[in-house]
Amino acid sequence: MLEGRRFECFFAYNWRNLISTFKPSSYKTVTPMNHLWSPWRMKYIENHEKESGCVFCIAQAKADGAENLIAFRGERAYVILNRYPYTSGHLMVIPFEHKPNLEELDPQTRSEMMELASRCTSVLRAVYRTESFNVGINIGEAAGAGVLGHVHIHIVPRWAGDTNFMSATGGIRVLPEALEDTYRRVREGFQNIQQED
């Protein structure tokens, strides 16, 4: 009974404080609604059919272009743009072989994946003047892997101040560039690096 009474007092006290913050003068100020336009999302909404199978295996079977977002193919692994990027230029290095973890890949594949991750940072520095990077691998569901069963490395370009009020308070990421434009720039960056080698 005492616990119930404490709750009633707590609720009544907080309710009075909440009510007192709404003063009639606050209703006179009207704040305009802000809009965040992303018209390219309509294509996804209208054609949202989930493909069965591994998204990485499906992508590597398609011809390279803005459809599959593969920016570079090596002998044992490839570089693809993240379709739902954390920042513009968010890349992934993926082995052609469908394996859930690194230890099931042969040493040559693991080595090529690290070399491609290094090339990704070089390309992103040249294309976007990237200041820093988050590079990581999430292996398994408990580690946050978005695609289980096909191990991959994330390369996320970062800049000072790239986390602003939209992501901190609204849980929203604002990407300043269309994915197709990012694809074109990154693919050209890989072509330029190949010519230099």
Give a brief outline of the structure:
This protein is of the alpha+beta class and 197 residues long.
Low-confidence stretches: 1-16
CATH superfamily of the domain at 54-160 and 171-190: HIT-like
SSE string, helices as H and strands as E: HHHEEEHEEHH
Approximate helicity band = 25-40%
Annotated CATH architecture of the domain at 54-160 and 171-190: 2-Layer Sandwich
> Total number of helical segments?
6
Number of strands: 5
Predict the CATH topology of the domain at 54-160 and 171-190: HIT family, subunit A
Shape: globular
Taking the alpha carbons of the first and last residues, their distance comes to 78 Å
Biggest sheet features: 5 strands, antiparallel
**In terms of structural class, how would the helical and strand content be classed?**
alpha+beta
Major sheet strand order: 1-2-3-5-4
Strand content: 5-15%
